[in-house]
Write a structure and sequence with these properties.
Length: 121
């Protein structure tokens, strides 16, 4: 499975950004897709996930109420709508996919290369 993210960039605090991730390769076995982020000097942090079949979503505490994850199974894609962005949301955002879990079991994930989101105050 190959994952390609798009949509990162530089924005101001309070702005919105929509990230997209497209999966290719052997995608019919994907169970869940989602997003993680990593700021310089920090550990990778779970952001959100969605299961392919049921659409069940999970969010990290720091983004609840501000970020929305969605999927388009026909396009093998997952999206992350990020609203009310804060400077602390600055990070490289990584798309993840898993055949076995909702991507919270990170050792089983496929990973994209990441897309940088920079939020200035």
């Amino acid at each position: 499975v190959q994952l390609v993210e798009s949509g990162g960039g530089e924005v101001q605090a309070g702005d919105s950004v929509r990230l997209a991730c497209v999966a290719s390769g052997v995608t019919n076995g994907i169970y869940g897709m989602g997003w993680f982020r990593q700021a310089p000097g920090t550990e990778r942090e779970f952001v959100a996930s969605v299961t392919k079949s049921s659409g069940k979503t999970i969010y990290g505490d720091s983004v609840k109420g501000r970020f929305t994850i969605s999927r388009d199974n026909a396009k093998n894609s997952v999206y992350l709508q990020m609203d009310s962005l804060k400077p602390e949301d600055t990070a490289t955002y990584y798309c993840a996919a898993s055949m076995m879990s909702d991507v919270t079991l990170t050792d089983l994930n496929y990973w994209g290369q990441g897309t940088l989101v920079t939020v200035s105050s």
